[in-house]
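Re: [help] complex structure
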Amino acid sequence: MELKEFFPFWKTLTPDQQARMTASARAYTAKKGEVLHRGQADCLGLVCVQSGVLRAYTISDEGREITLYRLYQRDVCLFSASCAMRAVDFDIFIEADQESLLWIIPPEVYRQLMEQSAPAANFTNELMAGHFSDVMWLLDQVLNKKLDARLAAFLLEAADRENSDSLSLTHEAVAGELGSAREVISRMMKYLQSEGMVAVSRGCVQLVDRAALEQLAGDSLR
Amino acid sequence: MELKEFFPFWKTLTPDQQARMTASARAYTAKKGEVLHRGQADCLGLVCVQSGVLRAYTISDEGREITLYRLYQRDVCLFSASCAMRAVDFDIFIEADQESLLWIIPPEVYRQLMEQSAPAANFTNELMAGHFSDVMWLLDQVLNKKLDARLAAFLLEAADRENSDSLSLTHEAVAGELGSAREVISRMMKYLQSEGMVAVSRGCVQLVDRAALEQLAGDSLR
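Output below.
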């Protein structure tokens, strides 16, 4: 993927700004499991995912990791350039979930661009708002810790019932079963999928990691 | 407080932009307990706190409140203008904790300003990063800290805010603040009381042993 494809505001930049971005960006292949960014101590730069998957997470005092969100092809990772932004006062870690081909733009180049270009600054804003939304969703889950456990329990039950780990189920139908809304179930399914517990395709849910689902369901059974 | 005092980038604006902001801003006095903004359905505008305190919170499906952050004098509230930003996909509620004098700027005026002015867009960015940091801290609290330490920290904070060791607080309200359930808080209060740290009576909590509370809170305050 070309660098400019990541930035919807590319055409609003001056030729100089475009040239600076292009000249400073380097292509990098991250190995599976490679940790690219370790909190505020690091400042790798803005990372654009050409292919592969990155995972953003935090680590508790006790060393427990919690996944905040994942970045897929076409996504831009903001917090690996957190030193380019003021008021970012928390530690995020970024790891390659798979071998990933990236563009990396140095933080000072991106900071300068944001200072010069309102479209660039507003794009940054939008990225942050998207990540913020992910974290708010996660907070809600953690606080209300029910639907994820209930969904896992429901899927395990259904698999037992059907005697198959491959379930023919629409999100609408699951929402009906759990007294929730379709969009809520879709988002939760996406989360379970990103955690490698299920594989979702049109009208079908495949149980991939039964042990993890059982552990998750345990919360609601206790 | 004058409007321009809230915006460190004020001098970078054109006279036209300044005039538009000034002409569109209205002073508003929110009563104690008044809910100013109810999630994505509302879009009040950018709110600047001249005096008083605003509380930003979310509400779970079960109607449980959790406080995300508070806004004091000189603070600017971004999410009451969430419709002015793309990719904000969560519901925040804003309530006046005390009678508060505000400036309110219509969302479309602020959105236009962000589109025109890189300094305004970067300021918005900084506000969002600040709120993001608050929420990340909260997530960490919820995930990792013990409720007893959080409750102690909360009581000490409230006492500082009210400038009194005698707090008018229901267990319900405390549960809302800490993202817990009333029964859980009641039980924990009973524990703190049995340890001689507080004295609890109907709708009132008295801080009895500040030193012990501070030691307990130490875990979460660090």
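Residues 3-142 of chain B form a domain with the Jelly Rolls fold (CATH 2.60.120.10).
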